[in-house]
Helix-turn-helix domain-containing protein (Oceanobacter antarcticus), 342 residues
Amino acid sequence: MTHSVLNNCPLNTTESGSSLTITNGIVFKDLPLQDASEQASAQDWVPVTIDQIGSGTYAGHYQELNLPGIKMVIERQNCTVHKRGIMDEKYCTLSYVRGTIDAARVSEHQASHKALFLIPAGTEVDVQVGSEAETVYFRFDQEHFQQQAMIIDPERWEGSYDPELMCFETLGQAQLDQNINQLLRHFSAGKPYLTGDGMERYITDNLMLMLQSSQPLSTLPFSTIDTRRRAAHLVHHVSAYLESVPNAQSCPGIIDLCRETGVSERTLQYSFKAQLGLTPNTYLRIFRLNRVRKLLRNPSHATVTVTEAAMRWHFWHLGRFSRDYAALFGESPSITLRNALG
């Protein structure tokens, strides 16, 4: 896997491996992760849910550089995850995926080594990232982003633009990584040659030049893109609906999903296979397993049991539940709970 541009930063680590470095008002967070839910919690500026959908014992890393007007994030994990939410009404992001990206997808678009994604404010976030891929994104105030983009290319960015996710083809990612890596080597050595404002401008200028030289990426007919976009929205709709379900008393099945979305089971099957490579039933099971894991990792009381958590999410056959849980997360549910209770 391609190494993070931040990997060269020597940091003051704690016993847990986490670190927080502040230099000239610039905040840099470096967090090891043990669960997909921790990956979601780290991104506290946007309400997002991340579920593990690929098998294995999860291990991840989250790095965040906070500048006066930009937040840069690099996240990676060793298991395939499904990330979804809605962008804040104030912020937009520019992002790309690197490493082995065959399983990476951003909404209706499959990731590539040339793809740069603009996710406007208020847009649905639906991302699937494989085990050997790394996500890099830059968060801007949307008004500030548009002002900067108009300076570089006023014809493209003047006025309002499509509120849907936009995908561009660019050749500038390697140069951007190299420039940021050079800047961060000085920063991590305690000798930043730029102030926070200067570093922000440096990164912004690099991003805008890369965006200016890019072209809208549309290698597929509009009808195909539109079909994929509808599938992405449908999967997001189902995910949001499931998130609203509090417990087993209203844990939905396929009929409930068809009723909620207003589509047939066949359409539901197609959309989930196209977006996640999973059937709706498999997705439902994985969703419920992730919810049980959340309960076991954060027990509400010291006497909570695996059986209690499993049955809350409609796992009635406990032997089969334990096998499915271990197959997905790489450990038994009893070990998860034991570790949580210390």
In short: The first helix runs from residue 36 to 42. Residues 113 and 174 are 10 Å apart (CA to CA).
